[in-house]
Amino acid sequence: MRVTPIRTPVITPQDRDLLGLLDRVLPPLQPGTVVAISAKIVALSEGRVVPAGTSDLPTLVQQEASWYLPPEEHRAGFTISIVESALIPNAGIDESNSAGGYVLWPADPQTSANTIRAHLARRGGHQSLGVLLTDSTVTPLRRGVLGLGIAHSGFAAINNVIGQPDVFGRPLRVTQVNVRDALAAAAVVVMGESHEQTPLALIETVPFVVFQDRDPTPAELRALRIPPEEDLYGPLLTRAPWHRGGRV
């Protein structure tokens, strides 16, 4: 696998032509490429920025989260939240690289990923490419952030290896490989988190990625999600005092 960051100009809330930016900075895309894009620049291009002083962060989190836990002082100003199917601090809202304000998630990340893939497929004249929107999150009991996939198009997000044998011939019973998040983690670590100006990355030479010349189906997107009561961490998730947020 080869992951190449792509440098861009500084992107501000005034830069609304994301597809034009991609046309300017991306090289010709070879078949079998996944284009990773920071969700932040998608949100900036959509005007999903709340100027500082016009709202407070806890209110925005409650508005943007699907579910959230009441903030507590020991969490250092962070609110634990679920946005769609992602466990993420502060509903993914970020103040960094925002030119003074709160950057929300894209309004509809999946529609954004579908639109970008369709544009790049037309531009390149082939369908064997994927688009992946990324953000950063934290892992319980581990220090530091890592990449998370929040939407994708053009490839299978899960490789199901249930029933395949391990090296000793024992059939695997539950293993499914989360390709989407694995690619996001690889992309975000080279894209950086501070002043790099590389909110894009090309992921190439990925024989384990199954490309699809279409957007993911509703059934495929549902298959990515696990109800809290069925989750491996369900005993923790279902006992927390979740409040319903404003994001459907």
Task: Give the tags.
248 residues; alpha+beta; 60s Ribosomal Protein L30, Chain: A; four-stranded antiparallel beta sheet; 25% helix; globular
What are the SSEs and their pairings?
Layout: E1 2-6, H1 18-25, E2 33-38, H2 39-45, E3 49-51, H3 57-64, E4 67-68, E5 80-83, E6 86-89, E7 101-103, H4 109-124, E8 129-138, E9 145-153, E10 158-160, E11 176-178, H5 179-191, E12 200-204, H6 218-223, H7 234-237, E13 243-244
What is the CATH architecture descriptor of the largest domain?
2-Layer Sandwich
Q: Provide the CATH superfamily of the largest domain.
A: CofE-like
Termini Cα gap: 36 Å
**SSE order, one letter for each helix or strand:** EHEHEHEEEEHEEEEHEHHE
CATH topology of the largest domain: 60s Ribosomal Protein L30, Chain: A
Cross-sheet strand order for the largest sheet: 1-12-2-8-9
Total discrete domains: 2
Uncertain regions spanning at least 5 consecutive residues: none
**Number of DSSP strand runs:** 13
> In which range does the helix fraction lie?
25-40%
Mean pLDDT: 93
User: Mind describing the biggest β-sheet?
Assistant: 5 strands, mixed
What is the SS-derived class? alpha+beta
At the first level of CATH, the class of the largest domain is Alpha Beta
- Tell me what portion of residues adopts beta-strand conformation: 15-25%
Large-scale geometry: globular
Number of helices: 7
Query: Using only CA atoms, what is the Rg?
Result: 18 Å
